[in-house]
Amino acid sequence: MIAPPAGEGWSSLLSPTVHQAYVSCYLSFSYAFNSTESNNASPDTSLKVFLKVDNGNDRVLLWQSNFAPLEKLKWHIVNLALRRIRHSFQLEFQARNGDLHVSKYHAVDNIDMNSCEPETSSSGGDSQCQGQFRCSNGNCITKRSVCDFEVSL
Question: Confidence class of residue 6 from pLDDT cuts 50, 70 and 90?
Answer without folding.
Answer: very low
